[in-house]
Amino acid sequence: MKFTYLGTAAAEGWPAVFCNCDFCNKARKAGGKDIRTRSQAMLGDDVLIDFPGDTYHHAVANSLNLSAVKYVFITHTHSDHFLPDDLEFRGSCFGHNFISPTIEFVGNEMLYQIMNNKFLPSLESSTRGNISATYIPPFTPTIFGDYTLTALKAQHKPDETAYVYLIEKNGKTLLYLHDTGLMPEETFAYLRDNKIKVDFVSYDCTHVLTRNKNGHLGLLDCVDIRNMLAADGVVHDGTVNVINHFSHNCGMLYDDLTAEAEKYGLLVSYDGMVINI
Ligand SMILES: [Zn+2]
Ligand SMILES: [Zn+2]
Ligand SMILES: [Zn+2]
Questions:
Q1: What is d(CA 273, CA 277) in angstroms, rounded to the nearest whole number?
Q2: Confidence at 32, pLDDT banded by 50, 70, 90
Q3: What is the Å distance from ligand 3's center to 215 Cα?
Q4: 54, 55, 62, 182: least buried by Cβ within 10 Å?
Q5: Exposure string (b/e) for 177-191, b if CB count within 10 Å is 16 or more?
């Protein structure tokens, strides 16, 4: 399974939209892996995880043909993970010869309600007909094409049931833990009780130097969660562990962060990073 990080920042991006802090100015000067856009990932060439406003930039920067996308798995409806306005341009006036005739958004009840009650009715009927939204309940494996998707409960955005995802394809399994603070016990119990073993974990590391707060984690929390998952047999010696979703307030640019994360056996994501599992 090919997994690509398209955007690896927290909500405001890094450099942040309007910020003049030292870490944003250092990132502007350094460029490369220190430029982080809003949170999104891709599986193969036909699945996106989340749909921020930077989706168009991700397509251009990575030479992606988004007409091939069949499914978009949405974790929650914060704007850095779900901003559907560009779906207007999936209409026949704006795009042609789509590789996938349809695109299906999948997620929690809030996603389902926003799409079906508000956003899709605002589109022209010919555009609307190519786009659908599907609700999946937590802890219920559901098949989408070659992928089996299981929503697990995050600890994030209290006004909706934010999801983190367990995703399987061809015997390979990944855990996508964005966005979340320390997940509720029922999420750990699901993985433990179903004897899930994962090949790759992407951890919320928004705060880096500080700890679990406001529905996000820091570096030592990621280490704790990795160790908890290892104690349950979910994470094993062959698991690739990557930290992701960084705030400019976190206090470290890519090189320093990589040196710190290496001490704990963790890799650091960057925009465009590919993980083959
Ligand atoms: Zn986020
Ligand atoms: Zn800043
Ligand atoms: Zn969020």
A1: 13
A2: very high
A3: 8
A4: 62
A5: bbbbbbbeeebbebb
The model's confidence at residue 201, banded by pLDDT at 50, 70 and 90, is very high
Ligand of minimum distance to the alpha carbon of 206: 1
Lowest-confidence segment of 35-39, 72-76, 119-123, 125-129 by average pLDDT: 125-129
> How many angstroms does the Cα of residue 146 sit away from the middle of ligand 1?
26
Count Cα neighbours of 160 within 13 Å in the Cβ-side half-sphere: 21
Taking the centre of ligand 3 as the mean of its atom positions, its distance from the CA of residue 245, in whole angstroms, is 10
Q: Quick: pLDDT tens for 106-139.
A: 999 999 999 999 999 999 998 998 999 999 999 9
Beta strands in the chain, from DSSP E residues, in sequence order? 2-7, 40-43, 47-49, 71-73, 103-107, 131-135, 142-144, 147-153, 163-169, 172-177, 200-204, 240-244, 267-268, 274-276
Domains of the chain: 2-276 (3.60.15.10)
Q: List the shell of residues around ion ligand 2, using CB closer than 5 Å.
A: 16, 19, 21, 24, 248
Q: Which ligand is nearest to the CA of 26?
A: 2
Measured in Å, residue 96 CA sits from the centre of ligand 3 at 33
Residues 6+ apart with CB under 8 A from 194: none
Find the 97 Cα to ligand 1 centroid distance in Å: 32
